[in-house]
Amino acid sequence: MNSKEGKELICIVCPNGCRLNAAMGEDGQLSVTGNKCKRGEKFAQAELTNPTRSLTTTVRTSFSTMPWLPVRTDGEIPKKLIGDALKELQSVLIEKNLRCGEVVLTDLAGTGINVIAASDL
Amino acid sequence: MNKNAKTYDVTVIGGGPAGLAAAISAHEQGAHVLLIEREDRLGGVLKQCIHDGFGLLRFGEKLSGCEYATRFMHKLEETDVEVRALTFASRIEKTDEGFLLSLIQSSGFEQVKSKSLVLATGCRERTARQVAIHGTRPAGVLTAGSAQYYINILGQLPGKNCVILGSGDIGLIMARRLTLEGANVLGVYEAKAEPSGLMRNIYQCLVDFDIPLHLSKTVTEVHGRERLTGVTVSAVDERMNPIPGTEEYIPCDTLILSVGLIPENELAESLGVKISRATKGPECNQDYETTVPGIFSCGNALHVNDLVDYVSESGENAGRAAAAYAKSGHEHRLKSVEVKTDKNFGYIVPSHIDLPAKDSVPFFFRTSKTRGRTRVKAFMDGKEVFSKVFAGLRPPEMEKIEIEAAKLQGAGPLQFTMEVDEHEQ
Amino acid sequence: MNLKKKQQKLDARFSGSIRIEDSGEYFHLTGTASTWEEAVEAGLLCAEKGGLKHIVSDVTVPGQEKPAPILPKLTDKTLEGRTPDILIIGGGVTGCAIARELSKNKLDILLVDKEYDVALHASSRNDGMVHPGIDITPGLLKKKMNNWGNSIYDKLCSDLNVPFERTGQYLCFKKGWYLPFMTLSVPYCNMTVAGKAHVVTGSKLRKVEPDVSPEAKFALYFDGAGMVCPYGLTIALAENAIDNGAQISLDTAVLSMETEENDGKTTIKSVTTNRGVIYPKIVINAAGVFAEDIAQMAGDRFFSIHPRKGTNAILDKKARRHINTIYSLMGTQSKTGHTKGGGIVGTVDGNVLIGPDAIETIEKEDFATHKDSIQNSFEKHNHAGKWLTTGDIITYFTGIRAATYEEDFIIENGRFTSNIIHAAGIQSPGLTAAPAIGLAIEELACKMLSKQMTVEPNENFNPVRQAIVKPKEMSDEDREKLIAANPDYGIIVCRCEEVSKGEILDAMRRSLPCDTVDGIKRRVRPGMGRCQGGFCGPHVVNIIAEEKHIPLQQVRKGYEGSEILTGEKGAAQENGAEQENGAEQENGTPQEKGGGRHE
Q1: Which terminus, N or C, of chain B has the lesser number of Cβ atoms within 10 Å?
Q2: Cβ-Cβ contacts under 8 Å, C581 against chain A
Q3: CB–CB contact A58 B200 (8 Å)
Q4: Residue B1 CB neighbour total at 10 angstroms
């Protein structure tokens, strides 16, 4: 699987899970095959240059009825920063009631992405 | 004591995604609705599904499971649906006026009456022993759903060095979740020759973390007295029987099983509802009414879905129909038409259609095995009423098709077929 | 069969590798065998069924060592210097029945068991049948104890509030022409079994058991057969013993004994355990598969135990509609023939049990199950019930029988040691016999003790033990009252078995306390159902942690070291983060590897 043959990827944008083949042409243009929609192309581009993922986890609360609150990033963050992001979230403690969608933490791991509550608390 | 029993039009059993949707849609039809949930919070299994990817069809967004459920809960809050959490329906009896339910809750024992019922009881996980895993009974052998509950609800890790059996979506999601929370996932084993979960989950849950996927291999034995010390894995033949001589010992302290879901229908069966051998859920018509008039089924209790969007859709369908039934009983039915498939189908829902049907009738089906380009057709009285080409079909991926009700007016049965499609479109 | 003949038989079979000697009180086998099965065969070859002069076997298998007993890790001094009148070793149904019967007397009774709970070996690993004693040879001690025990069951279970159903048992026959012979055998059966035997025609049989196989042409019906929950009974006996003054010390293993010689008789002076040295007046050996080891410590080894394991499958309650009692079909066998007796049994809890098989094993505590056992049992019993399907299996378990080579019970005073009484070799029908063994040992013990003290009745003895309430079996009115008094009974934790939080807390607060998931499961059944704890498991863990004020990760499944959780999530995040970075893009490794694997 060198660059001429292209890279095999699976698009994770929707449940279709298209099998993509992404090849970088000599002109530096990316050619993607196997995608059923436009989003596959964008995904492949990112995947080859700066792969990103959304992150979901739980953070500690001070409520005994729900000691952990599910949260997620409100966008995707670089894959390589997921470790740092988790470490940052590890120290978060929620002490007030939140509604689903409210921001729990801003600028996660310096990415500019916020972390939001994924459930009411 | 049932003289003072409160009466509802529709009682929904189960407050997961199917039950939430059913309660809301029954309410929207003007029904007086009771929703019963045995846990302390609504949401069902979505409470512990913190991962995202839910609701793409319905909301066009990648929500987490909790968010998806919360959207329905917020909608429910705007209704006057009566919600009873931490309540267990221990017994349901059929009466002349409908149903009499015995409810157990910490506030006491109570009986209520309901004109119709929606069973949204979800499904349970198959366990180690139910897939013939032998050996000892140490701590550290658990289902993926239990592991998910421990991590996401209780904030606890069920193990440090984990082997996962089963490449269903829950197994894959748990592989990623365990890794992110500091456990070591040694590998995912799958008895089938191909993964059961969605391809994108293979990619983002296994490939991303360099977790190996071993196909055509299964766990046959667990070892250890107190805590799991290791598992024996064996290669399997095409019929999924372990091949002697291929045993391999994998040291680990945790075995997580994602080996199938079984619709929960004990309540339904106690009421005489006929259960389909193919789906393990009730036989039903296009309104998801079971073989017992007034009892409707939806969500994973009806058949195991892979997308929550479809679960909600079936809940809405069942809730709407239950409300209509409560209001006026059955409309005049001309006849019931059986839905049949050839053996290329894993199953199809519904199992029969009561005519006349309204608008268009959705069918959900699974293929019995992985196929390439396939044409799915439906015939009624020798006439083709449906034809569609699928680029590929896989058993783990449920497909939905719709047929206009107007086309379904024959004598029946409605026969579905699958054939290889050789023509390029 | 004299000694010479025995040796000839051995030589013919094992070409001189195994020797037999007569050491007066027993026959001693020595030498080597190539497999454990052969070592056992040697013993059985020389043994006389029911013989009082036992085989003691030291036959070894090169390269295969008898595993040492698994001991508790705990050590403390809780029992140091205790001087009980009676020390009972073993908390199975036998030991607990003995403790309970002895507690009718004003005595200091201490029962020890090396496990974390009572009934962890054979007493929780059998099919729960109360036998009429059909296939036991008359003249054996176990016949007498079986029939005696059987006759006490109704009263005992009613006193202890343990569910017991005298369902009866159908022994079905394939050949119709056997019927006249079997009719003739009825008077003989009636003389030798507990209860009565009746010949039942095929059509009558099908009135009670409509789903019995068409292969069954007629049956012998034994009305003395019944069903009990074996660990439920053991726990009830233990609780009742404690309620009446006995002490039960769990996690307590007997490690050694100090004996002294007096007038040619040996006496146990002290018993060393991991929890201190105990100085009992008399010792009762109810140690199951370890009875021989205990006898040896006491200097009273005159029998051997050869463990024999058997596996049963538990079927979903749905399968129970096919069976109302207990039935089996005579003359059916699986291909390998490793099944013994057994049948299809409808349990008191509404499940169905299939099995067991019978396999000799050197391991006394290897409770692992194997695929073959289940297959064999199904093959065999499928003849009796065509409806049997492995698809209904919810789980399976293995038990190990404590058989002597004479295949009979040993209930007697020590032969070399003056202050020990054995209840050894208690295999099937040990559950049926247990109440009788309790009474027999009580008599022996009181007689032995009366030489050194006066044994007076315990005036406060209360034979009745209150059971944990079962809300789901109550009338609606009673259940309403119960929940009103304690809302915990209205919180259903286990939906398959409909178990409330209140019952779980009750199980933890009994006179024999319990704080493990499995212990609670045996008492009030959360996790016993078809989901096998998939839903309720985490809730039970939570309740235990709350009740005991311990962190979640200290909650155990059962044994010491069987903690269910390993710690709070994210604790090893450093490690996880590294992996995450390692899984990064450079050279495209993960994609390539992963892609290659599944395509």
Answers
A1: C
A2: 80, 83
A3: no
A4: 11
**Least CB-CB distance to A58: which of B52, B155, B203?**
B155
Task: Specify whether C422 is catalytic.
Answer: no
Flag if C580 and A1 touch (Cβ within 8 Å). no
Considering only alpha carbons, which residue of chain A is nearest residue C584?
Answer: A80
Q: Is residue C591 part of a domain?
A: no
- Which residues are paired to C60 by β-bridges? C32
Cα distance between residue C423 and residue C102, in whole Å:
14
Domain over B332-425 is classified CATH 2.60.40? yes
Closest Cα in chain A to B205:
A12
- Residue B389 in contact with partner chain A when CB distance is under 8 A: no
Domain map (residue ranges) of chain B: 1-125+261-330, 127-259, 332-425
Q: Closest partner residue to C570 among B134, B160, B181, by Cβ?
A: B181
Q: Could you list the residue range(s) of the whole structural domain that residue C107 is in? A: 79-165+224-304+405-454
For the four alpha carbons of B374, B375, B379 and B382, in that order, the dihedral sign comes to negative
Taking only the tens of pLDDT, chain B with its 425 residues reads: 456 789 999 999 999 999 999 999 999 999 999 999 999 999 999 999 999 989 988 999 889 999 999 999 999 999 999 999 999 999 999 998 899 999 999 999 999 999 999 999 999 999 888 888 999 999 999 999 999 999 999 999 999 999 999 998 899 999 999 999 999 999 999 999 988 888 889 999 999 999 999 999 999 999 999 999 999 999 999 888 999 999 999 999 999 999 999 999 999 999 999 999 999 999 999 999 999 999 999 999 999 998 999 999 999 999 999 999 999 877 667 788 999 999 999 999 999 999 888 889 999 999 999 999 999 999 999 899 999 999 889 888 889 999 999 898 888 899 999 999 876 54
In angstroms, the separation between the Cα of residue A46 and the nearest Cα of chain B is 14
Does B370 contact A at CB distance below 8 Å? no
Query: Which chain C positions have a beta carbon within 8 Å of A79's beta carbon?
Result: 580, 583-585
Calculate Rg over the CA atoms of chain C. Answer: 26
Using alpha carbons, select from C149, C9, C117 the residue that is nearest to residue C507: C117
What lies within 8 Å, CB to CB, of C453 at 6+ separation is: C85, C281
**Selection from C506, C477, C473, C471 nearest residue C492 by Cα:** C471
Check B203 against A10: CB less than 8 A apart: yes
Closest partner CB to C370 (pick from B134, B139, B179):
B134
**Do B1-125+261-330 and B332-425 have matching folds?**
no
Which CATH class name applies to B1-125+261-330?
alpha beta
Catalytic annotation, pick one of C28, C54, C121, C131: C131
Instruction: Determine, yes or no, domain membership for C434.
Output: yes
The answer to ipTM > 0.90 is: yes
Kind and range of the H or E element at B363? strand B360-367
**Contact check, Cβ <8 Å, C580/A82:** yes
| Kind plus residue range of the DSSP H or E element containing B339 | strand B335-341
- b/e map of C445-466 (b: 16 or more CB within 10 Å)? bbebbeeeeebeebeeeeeebe
B179/C569 CB distance under 8 A = no
B175 contacts in C (CB within 8 Å)? none
Give the CATH fold of the B127-259 domain: FAD/NAD(P)-binding domain (3.50.50)
Domain assignment present for C313 = yes
Neighbouring chains to A with at least 3 Cβ pairs closer than 8 Å: B, C
All structural domains of chain A = 7-49 (no CATH), 56-117 (3.10.530.10)
Judgement on whether residues C487 and C428 belong to the same structural domain of the protein: no
Q: Do A14 and B180 touch (CB under 8 A)?
A: no
What's the pTM? 0.93
Give the model confidence (pLDDT) of C416-467 as tens digits: 999 999 999 999 999 999 999 999 999 999 999 999 999 999 999 999 999 9
Owner of token pair 């202050």: C419
